[in-house]
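Milestone M4 deliverable, item 7.
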Amino acid sequence: MNKNSLLTPDRKTNEAAKTINQSPSPEKLISDALSLAILFIAVIALAFSPIFTKLSEIEISPTVTIFNRLWIATVIISCWRLIKTPPEFTKIQLREYTPDYKQQGLLILASIAATTSAVFWAISFTHTSVASSTLLRSLTPLFISFGAWLILKQQFNRQFMIGMVLSMIGGMAIGWDDWQLGTQYLIGDGIALLSAALHGTNILIVGYLRDRGCETATVLFWRCGCGALIVFPLVLLTDTTLLPISVQGWLTVIALAFVCQTFGQGLLVYSLKQFSSSFVGIFTLLKPAITAVLAWVIFTESLSFSSGIALLLILVGIYLAKSSEALT
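Output delivered:
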């Protein structure tokens, strides 16, 4: 006998209503699609970072590149905040402002984590291959999910975990062809792994702040401003050239600051209000795959078969993670 035939008319009506209520509305579907599109645009913008960095390092060191990227982005964000905020509102805000020391502390901590991660990643390139560093950087979602489980007490269902694992395998497969093993690379690999952990810490903290109403512009301002102050002493100690020396060099670091740091990171921070930190971490694994395509187009670098398999695995992992429901 059909199970539904045992239901009374009222029970059948309630079951049907429940099914309808569980189905996403058209508005919700459009909103989710728009949010995913914004996150995808953010990843595309961030994928240009290695390209611009490679061009910038023709004139200046990786550390100086990071410093210029951050201080120029701080200027851009400051100008945006001044244009966006009316003068009369600024006066009222300054008069009534009560500092939230916990939020400021977390912003500083996120900035330290993000800046140190970028510096460590740049240093890892001098001790191990770019492929090995990229491979280990792909473990970032693992650190994010572990932190969300340990600190924020979040739980994830099996489908989400499978999606995360598939995406990480795809991210690691991008650099698999050129992965180098040996004791001489242990230091560089360890630095790259620490960079991944710090990068995950930054995303986790920013996601926590966004869930509690911290604005995107505020996160970016603290991230870039504090980051520039952190890197500046290191630049003074290790480099003699602090600024680009040609028009092309300036255009490159300005592109890094605007396209990658302000626009790309801004959209990424915005997306952390729409999606969980763990899902954003998984989605950003598309970045090395997109960078590989860009390098193939711009620098005519070879695009291996494993890169295509990696992209497919990442996309399948993202689909599984998005279609699953995180248990709270």
